[in-house]
Amino acid sequence: MPPHVDRVLKFLADEETASLQRLDEWLRIPSISTDPHYAVDCKRAAQWAADYLKDCGFATEVLPTGTADKHGHPLVMAHCPGSPDYRGPHVLFYGHYDVQPVDPIDLWESPPFEPVIREGKPGGPGRRIVARGAVDDKGQVMTFLEAVRAYRHVTDLVGGGVKFTVMLEGEEESGSTNLEPFVKAHLAKFKDCDVCLISDTGMLGRGQPAITYGVRGLAYTEITLHGPNQDLHSGLWGGRMLNPNTALVQILSQLWDSNRRVTIPGFYEGCPEPSADERAAWSKLGFNSAEALAKIGLPPAADVGEAGYTAMEREWARPTAEINGIYGGYTGAGAKTVIPAHATAKVSFRLVADQQPDKTVSLFFNWLRERTPPGFCWDLKDLHGGFPATLPTDSVHLQAARRALKRAASVDPAMIKSGGSIPVAGMLKSMLGISTIFMGFGLDDDRVHSPNEKFEIDCFRLGARSHALLIDELRALQDR
Ligand code: BES
Ligand code: MN
Ligand code: MN
User: Fold this and answer.
1) In a domain, 304, yes or no
2) Which of 103, 161, 226, 424 holds its CA 20 to 30 A away from the CA of 184?
3) Spatial separation of the C-alpha atoms in residues 365 and 54, rounded to whole Å
4) Per residue in 328-375, pLDDT tens?
C-alpha cells in the first residue's frame, strides 16, 4: 500500500495521548550519563528505545562502547532498507537518550523522573510535559519515533519506506568521548549514509519553526593551580606568599581584554567575520535581546559581550571563553581563615567555523604555563571537546526539510544557528563528509539542563508531524 501522509497525520493526532504516555515511560528511566551510578539506567534507556524501534520493524542492536578500562554507555543502532522502489537518500537519524544531572534538586516542582503534564496559562508557557530529558533529547527523539511508528501502523512500511539508519547515543551530555572510536569500528554501517538528521535544537520562537544550520564547537578543560604543600592559616601566612585562589583569579581575569575579546594569541585563527549577507539576514529575524534578557531576570543594560557584535551574532558566530566553575579553600558554611594549597577552575571555550578544540586547548595550556607563579605548578586536564559544524543551506535534503516544516506548520521555517554544541555533527562531517540537518522543536524557555525542564505539547505535535512530512518529502525526492 502506498504511504498516505494524511492518514499518517490523522493517526498521529488520534494517538497523541498514547504517544505522550510512551514518552512518559522513557522519561522515567534516569539515564544520567556523566554519573557512573546510573550506568544500569543508561542501559535500560537504551534497551527501551531498541525495543521501540524493533516494534516498528527496524533491525535493531544495542552495542557496547568504550574499552575494558574506560566504561562506555551502549549505543542503539537500528536500520531499515527502505521500500524496494526507494531511490532517495540514506538518512542517518541521530539522537541521544542520556540526560544531564538533575541538581539543584530542590528547585524541581515535581521529581525529575516522574513526568507530569502541566496545563498552559495565558502569557506563560503552554501545555507541557515536565521532566529531565523532556526536550533534551528524549522528547525530541520521540517525535521521530512516533512518526515512524505511525507509518508502520497506517501503511505497514518500516521507516515510512525511507532507508534509515538510526543511532541513539548515551554519552552526548558527557562529551561523546566513545563515539568516534565506535563509528570507526562500525564504518560499514555509516559509509553509504547521505545525510544526518538530528532533532536536538530549538525553534526561533513559539509557532516559528526553524532549521539550524550551524552549531558551535566546544573545548572543555579543568585546571588546577598547586601552591604550598598544605592548607595554611591565613593569619600566619597571609602576605608572606601567594594565595593560589588569588593567583588563579588574577590569571583567569587576563583571558579577556577591555573589548571582551579572548587574549590567547592564535585563538581567533580559523574564525572569519560573519558575512554582511548573513548579518543582514539575522537582523531580519526580529530577535529581541531585551525581551530575552527579561526572561532571565536581567535589564536591557545587561546585553554585554564582545564589542562590535549583536547578541545573536555573539551566540551564533563568535567564539567565547567561559569559567563554568571555580573553587578552592573553604566553601562550606560560615567562615574559616585559610589559604588553600590549590585552586581549581573549569574553563571551556565555544568555537566556530574552522577553530579546532585540540588546538584551542593547547594554546590555552601554553598560555597558562607562561603565567605560572614562582614555585607553583599546574595540573591541566582536557576533559572533552567537539568541532563546530556549519552546514550548507542549499542542499536538496535541507530543502526537503524546509518543505516538510512549511507543510507541518503552515509557515516558512526560519534559518537559524545555535550557540550550543552537538559534537556528532562535526565528527560526521570530518570522518564521512556528510552534512547534518538540525530540525529541532525546543523553545528558549524550556529550561534545558535546568530544574523543571519541559517540552511543550504543541512543539511535540509539530515535531511528530514534521518528521512524518519529511519522510513524505524524502520519498518524493526520487521523483524530482
Ligand atoms: N541539545 C543540546 C545542545 C543544543 C541545545 C543545541 C539547544 C542547540 C539548541 C546538547 O544536548 C548539549 O547540551 N550539548 C552540550 C555539549 C556537550 C559536549 C556536553 C552543550 O552544548 O553544552
Ligand atoms: Mn541534546
Ligand atoms: Mn544537552
Assistant:
1) no
2) 161
3) 47
4) 999 999 999 999 999 999 999 999 999 999 999 999 999 999 999 999
**Could you identify the residue written with the cell 516542582?**
109
Q: How many domains does the chain have?
A: 2
Can you give the residue range of the structural domain that contains 263? 217-271+319-386
pTM, rounded to two decimals? 0.95
What parts of the chain have a pLDDT lower than 70? Answer: 1-3, 479-480
Residue 319: CB within 6 Å of ligand 1?
no
Residue 386 near ligand 1, beta carbon < 6 Å? yes
Please state the separation of Cα 49 from the chain's center in Å: 19
- Do 110 and 246 reside in the same domain of the chain? no
Tell me, using a 6 A CB cutoff, whether residue 200 lines ligand 1: yes
Residue 314 lies in a domain: no
Strand, coil or helix: what is 213?
strand
CA 121 to chain centre: 28
**Most informative mutation of 169, 422, 450, 459 for ligand 1 (most atoms within 8 A of CB):** 422
33 C-beta neighbours (distance < 10 Å), count: 26
Please indicate, yes or no, whether residues 350 and 439 belong to a single structural domain of this protein. no
Cα of 125 vs its chain's centroid, Å = 22
